[in-house]
Amino acid sequence: xxxxxxxxxxxxxxxxxxxxxxxxxxxxxxxxxxxxxxxxxxxxxxxxxxxxxxxxxxxxxxxxxxxxxxxxxxxxxxxxxxxxxxxxxxxxxxxxxxxxxxxxxxxxxxxxxxxxxxxxxxxxxxxxxxxxxxxxxxxxxxxxxxxxxxxxxxxxxxxxxxxxxxxxxxxxx
Length: 173
Hints:
- The chain is mostly helical.
- The chain has helices at residues 3-8, 12-16, 22-34, 36-54, 64-76, 98-118, 143-172; strands at 129-131, 137-139.
- It contains seven helices and two strands.
- Strands 1-2 form a two-stranded antiparallel sheet.
- The longest helix is centred in the last third of the chain and has 30 residues, at 143-172.
- It starts with a helix and ends with a helix.
């Protein structure tokens, strides 16, 4: 990864979503013309964005509002007001299916892993001590620490998917 890539990658999502000013978009477009790796990442982000747009609106089960309010009360330890009913049909998006939830979860996971991998150093490089400029050395993550972080992220992802499946199961019954 070049220094040009390091400057372009954090803005790729905005570029794909067409949220950049024309000058910045031209700068990224020029870089993509010469960098196959960043071009592939931009194409992946565009596909994920397209899949997410195709999912359409999703209506949560009516009991979800009460569960959310109850959890907020538990976490805050206060007597927060609990809604007695979910929002009206006019306030909610149209009904969606189980596959939309699972597709959305998969798309968000791909985006999260893509963004996470952009900020990680090359795992093939060994850990070294780097002078941080203030006289104190900082340690660059090793392959092992990156692997541990990825394992924790994967465990959190699996936990989130299990919770999502439980919500869907409860909503379908």
